[in-house]
Structures are given as structure tokens and as C-alpha cells.
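Before anything else, study the sequence and C-alpha cells given here and see whether the fold suits the sequence. Record follows:
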Amino acid sequence: IATLQAVAFALPTLPLWAAAARRHLRGTSGIGWPGAAVFHSLLKLSLPMFMFQLGGLIINESALLFISRRCGFETSADFGLAMRLYGLVFLGGVCMSQPFYPALREARARGHHTWVRHALLRLFLVRLSVIALAGVVLLFWGDTILELWSGQPLKHPLGLPGWGVLVVLMLIASFTSTVSEVMSAMDRVWSQLPILVGNAVVLFTGLHLTLPSWGITGAFTAMLAGTMVSLAWSVERLARDPTFRHGAASESERPPGS
């Protein structure tokens, strides 16, 4: 499965690499070999991004193993199915928000702070609307969708309380992810690494306390608590950016003589 995923990600890029190599050999690309400054700039951004994504992956996979040890494989299997559906909905929100980031980055670089703030509000509205619409469907028919998807009845149906917690988690996680992606687009990646530590501590403490009595719903509750910690940290860090400070405006928006 891992090999097929790697091939699936690599295949779409092959025509692009072939076209770039052909233009470079013809001398029409206008692109020379990158210097040390370019590699240093890429490393400065890619290294913390890699560490952040790797840390998040380790936390997510460790949480699944923790659930398996505490509640057994049947519970972890139902949890995994629900998280696959969660990931599908979450990915839809990500796809809707990605086109905003290049424009936000360029507008911030030009100092159009008011435009950036208004565009960010539209971004939140679009992404959370997608999640909310999908959440309504999951709230009432989530168990049915999972049973049709897996072809067998769930050992631990989530019911209305479980799906309610999961929908709230999707909304909060989407908001948090949007803030994190905006910070990454503004090259503020290093400041996000401490989020992983706080998230992991709250998540695994919550899992330890809630799994015995609440089961899968407890796992979602623990994830929600960890996500709230990440949200508080991300919003506080983003608020420090001059673009989002109260009264910040672009140079073209200031009155003459100010």
C-alpha cells in the first residue's frame, strides 16, 4: 500500500520534470543552477515544516496504538474508520482553502494588511462552511455511512453523541489548521513546533482518562482538548504578526500626511 501511494504521488510530477529537463537542455528555460543562498532559504523553511509534519504523524499514529492497547483492536478499527471519514471531509476543506494562500502571501508582502484580514475572514467562512455541511450529514447518518463503507456492522456505533463530538472536532481542527497554514504561508513555521508538545501531553492524558468509560467518544474528546491547546497557541502567535494587529493598515490605505 505504501509503495502504491508513493507511486501515485510521483506519477503526476513526471511530465513536469520531463518538460523542465527538455527546456533546460534546449537552453530556453532561462533558469540556472541555484546557488547556496537558494538552498539555505529552502532549508530554512522546509526543515521546520518537515519536523512539524513528522511530529504530527507520530502523535496521530501513537494515539491509534494507545487506543488499541487500552480498548482492543475492535475499538481501534472502528476509530480508524471514523477517522478515515474525518480525513476525507477535512481534505475537502483543505482543497477549498489552498487557492487563498498565494494571494495572502503576496498581499502581505506588499503591505495590504486590511485586504489580508478581509480575505482571511472569507477563507474561514469558506472552509468552515464546507465542514459544517458535511458535519450535518455525518451527525445523522455517520454510522450508516461507515457500515456501508466497511460492508459490516460497527462493533461500537458512535451514535449522536459521538458524531456530535467529532463534528465539533472537525470544525475546531479546521479553524486551527487554517491558522497554521496561514502562519506557514507567512514563513512562521518554527513557532508552531511547541504546539506539538502541548497537543501530545493533553491528548494522551485525555485518552488515559476518557477511554475506559467513554470509548471512541472519549478519544474524540481528548483530540478536541488537544486541538483547543493548539488553537490557543496558534491564534496568540498569529496575533503578534503586524498584519493582524489592531489598527494595522497598508500604506495605500493611510490618509495623506499620517
